Amino acid sequence: MPKIQLNLSEREDMVVGVYKVAKKLPTKEAAIKNMIEYFEISIKPKNRVIEWLKSDYSSGRNKNEG
Fold this sequence. Notes:
Low-confidence stretches: none
Number of helices: 3
Mean pLDDT: 82
Number of strands: 0
Radius of gyration: 20 Å
Shape: elongated
Order of helices and strands: HHH
Strand content: under 5%
């Protein structure tokens, strides 16, 4: 399981603490895990070359094949 270290501001730490108490969770770690479940994410490449390669391979073409 990957570990992530978060540097929370005082306000963010307080929000997590309040959420922990409100949901009757044992730790702030559990509170953060619970909070994360409310979000949906998608990861997209920033680099246009990666997008080009992705579209090239998804279409079945490979530049190295000739």
